[in-house]
């Protein structure tokens, strides 16, 4: 039996970052992990998908080399196995990096499946077998099965793909993001069910490499969490690339036939249609991993599987906390990391600020990229704000034209009375890097005057941010 100040269940982005910060604050800390350090994000989500999408970017540029005055001799082709290998190698490198960080910060790693046996006590049993999905071996210095005590226990167990009836993944014809990240061959046709960030990123990747892609979304717009204008802009771009999109639609029936499927699609006001596809990706969201942890027996409050917490990530049971996906949306790695820091700093007696959820940025790495922070136009107006809206197209930006990336839009939303920046919504090249400028501005409670007085370097894509702020108040210079 080991005694710890902080015992973290789950070694994903939230869990391992919380452990590092706890150790920095002088707290004896351990992480219990059953599958792989770094969690889904590092091993099967955020990082390996970006490696694949980077390959898609390079392939796209190579196939349009003539647009840049370049000639590439010979046929431009790709090797699916090499694409996947690079993606897995990137994940392996970072997985090893997390192991190093645990050792550097003297955080114990306990390998196995955890369950809260009693208040302040965690029982660890042998981990289940995850087969090829686990990929990486447990750290050599990891502790094993047994009972461990923690004065403060953090639940950071993440989430898993949601399964809809009739769309149960089989690992062959119907995929989750696990299978979609490591295909043996790239399908010639693909049905993506769900048009959130995961669905759209995979649709973008497979379309770039030539697959006929159809997206089906139950809600009226793709990217339902995004501003409607930005989502509509992205939809037009995807359709121009050849992606077929059906919104306010659902898969009513899915029939497996040989090496493919036949899907019956029912769309509001458009009746039924049938499409054939070699593979299906189910990307209909995730559900929290809160089962089999012993939470109910200890009286920890849950709502639809989500562990209920306050602004400092405390549950209703003293000494038990929850961070990341298991503590509810938005299901984002950077949100989980920040929650972990806030949580352990409060445990250590510091006075961290609770997370301001309207200042959490969201990024989607499709082509074109999408990024946002704060209120959408509809949400700002619904909240009673008199909104000033600024827009600036990439077509008016010199750097975007030089890059050959003129498809994009930056939209800013200000409160007309106070000048406060309420939200920023971007679509276009590298907007996932640009968005942090707006996040910092919101965190510093920057007004429109301060943004307009800021000097942005030329020529850069960031000038679109400046021009959008200027446009909100009738001062845009380049449109």
- Helix-strand makeup class: alpha/beta
Helix content: 25-40%
Indicate the overall shape: globular
Distance between the termini: 68 Å
Average pLDDT taken over every residue = 95
Low-confidence parts: none
How much of the polypeptide forms β-strand, as a percent range?
25-35%
**What does the largest sheet look like?**
7 strands, mixed
- The Rg value, from CA coordinates, equals 24 Å
Total number of helices? 13
By DSSP, the count of extended strands is 24
What's the short story on this structure?
By secondary structure, the chain is an alpha/beta fold. It has 13 helices and 24 strands.
Verbal overview:
The chain is of the alpha/beta class and 479 residues long. 30% of the residues lie in helices and 26% in strands. The chain has 13 helices and 24 strands. It has helices at 13-24, 39-44, 46-63, 80-104, 177-180, 197-208, 228-240, 333-347, 377-382, 398-403, 431-443, 448-453, 463-472, and strands spanning 2-9, 29-33, 108-111, 113-118, 121-125, 146-155, 159-161, 174-175, 189-193, 212-216, 244-246, 249-257, 260-267, 271-277, 279-282, 286-288, 302-303, 306-307, 320-322, 362-364, 370-374, 387-393, 409-415, 421-427. Strands 1, 2, 3, 4, 5, 6 and 19 form a 7-stranded mixed β-sheet that branches. Strands 8-15-9-10-11 form a 5-stranded parallel β-sheet. It has a 5-stranded antiparallel β-sheet with strand order 20-21-24-23-22, with helices on both faces. β10, α7 (228-240) and β11 (244-246) form a beta-alpha-beta unit. α1 packs parallel to α8 and α3 (46-63) packs parallel to α6. The mean pLDDT is 95.
